[in-house]
Amino acid sequence: MSILIRNGRVIDPDTKLDEICDLQLEEGRITACGKNIEAEADVILDATGCYVMPGLIDMHVHLRDPGQTWKEDVVSGARAAARGGFTTVLAMPNTKPVIDSPDRVDYVKVKADYSAPIHVLQAGAITKGQKGEVLADIEGMIAHGIPAISEDGKSVMNAGLYKKAMELAARHGIPVLAHCEDANLVNGGCVNEDENSRSAGLPGIINAVEDVIIARDILLAEETGAHLHLCHCSTKGSMDILREAKKRGMDVSGEVCPHHFTLTSGDIIPGDTNYKMNPPLRTAEDREALRQGLKEDVFEVISTDHAPHSAEEKTATMRKAPFGIVGLETAAALTLTELVDTGILTPMQMAEKMSYHPARILHLEGRGSLAPGSEADVVIIDPDKEYEIDTRYFESKGKNTPFAGKKVKGRIMATICGGKIVYQDKERNLVQ
Ligand SMILES: NC(=O)N[C@@H](CC(=O)O)C(=O)O
Ligand SMILES: [Zn+2]
Ligand SMILES: [Zn+2]
Predict the structure, then answer these.
(1) Is 305 one of the annotated active-site residues of the chain?
(2) For binding Zn(2+) 1, which residues are annotated in this chain's numbering (predicted)?
(3) I want to staple 23 with a disulfide (CB 3.0 to 4.6 A). Which of 5, 89, 282, 346 is the partner?
């Protein structure tokens, strides 16, 4: 199988290429990139007016498999990812049961290998059952292929235990993905603590809930030499602390999710639980800091924290509904609309944060790159296509998004994974 993508704006952070040219894919690999490639191909795609980027990589998703497959499963999640332009996702281990052993890692791997259209990777939990008491079989899971460990959904509050996990991660050269939330400071909060929470009479979550654990984790990473990656950063403090740690030359990185760089707590429609996620939507000042941090590459990753829940679960009150919103099928459009179209990020920075940097942090050789020899994982995006987000077209089982009906600019036209077209837009056929 060979594919020739003609006349797109090829944007490759690895080779620093940003040029209108052709890209040739053969037998699952990228084989050539250049102007007017004359080779024969089984399929020719006309990418005129489109960005051609390395397939997007989301290093933070929840696929709910095993145990909560009414919300999502490996296959529906992977299809949603393909529709969103992603060719690799990393699933968090807060499933039921928790992915804390080699055989549970294998369960996801086998299911994904047989039936997912894209690459699905699995992170291993740090403690058994995510109870924060004893370490999980981290080395066993590393032997079975996990590219990272994470306790996402919570922080490991026992710093001594966490330090041991970091030592293991450092020894094996894998990153620790940190959900930063001080369990003792949350205080039952369900939205950001500010004038909006007070007028709505809802318990609030202060910024320090996140910031104190970020500071602690950075100190522990410095001590152990582990690569620390901060999940879903939402506060101005996260940006300040991360910037300062990087100045000291530390091996630490951070991600921001589209909802946190797009919305503030002031946008919450009272009672609409599709605005409830953890960490919560913060203030305009926090959002501004996140945007600035993305622009200045303090944050090198954009991830979705795709957190599907059923409509029924989300009909609960703001206090009781589960935290989390879906993100795979809206992330590229929100990044293009909110950050690229506004001049905050260049298209090259988008490709870095949504593909190249995640590949480097997770040590995914041959991914996040369009250099010849790389895996044939490619996304074709029309940056000018305008439309309204419509959850009826979502491949995800989760429709829980505050962005339904939002006007955006930028649409995935095709996703190619391992040299196969795994998603194509129905309106505009690129095949020539
Ligand atoms: N982000 C969320 O609001 N929810 C996540 C957990 C998490 O990412 O911490 C979930 O698993 O639902
Ligand atoms: Zn989290
Ligand atoms: Zn998460």
Answers:
(1) yes
(2) 60, 62, 152, 305
(3) 5
In the chain, the number of structural domains is 1
Around 159, how many Cα atoms within 13 Å sit in the side-chain half-sphere?
Answer: 13
Pick the residue whose CA is nearest to atom 2 on ligand 1.
324
- Write the residue with the smallest CA distance to atom 6 of ligand 1: 153
Q: Nearest 5°: CA angle at 187, between 151 and 135?
A: 20
- Evaluate whether residue 374 is within a structural domain: no
Residue in 152, 184, 150, 179 with CA at minimum distance from that of residue 165 = 150
Around ion ligand 2, which residues have CB less than 5 A away?
Answer: 152, 179
- Spatial neighbors of 232 by CB under 8 A, at least 6 apart, are 60, 179, 255, 256, 257, 260, 278, 279, 303, 305
Q: Is 64 annotated as a binding residue?
A: yes
Domain assignment present for 306: yes
Candidates 58, 100, 211, 305; catalytic one: 305
Whole-structure pTM value = 0.99
Is 323 annotated as belonging to a binding site?
A: yes
Whole-number Å distance, alpha carbon 377 to ligand 1 midpoint, is 27
Q: Give a yes or no: residue 298 inside a domain.
A: yes
What's the CA gap between 145 and 121, in Å, rounded? 8
Domain range for 205 is 55-361
CATH number of the domain to which 210 belongs: 3.20.20.140
Average pLDDT over residues 197-217: 98
ipTM over 0.90? The verdict is: yes
Average pLDDT (250-279) is 98
Q: Pick the atom of ligand 1 nearest to 181's CA.
A: 9
Chain mean pLDDT for the chain:
98
Per-residue confidence (pLDDT) for residue 63, from 0 to 100: 99
H-type helices in 144-207, by residue range?
159-172, 183-186, 195-200
**Ligand 1 site-directed mutation target among 68, 278, 320, most atoms within 8 Å of CB:** 278
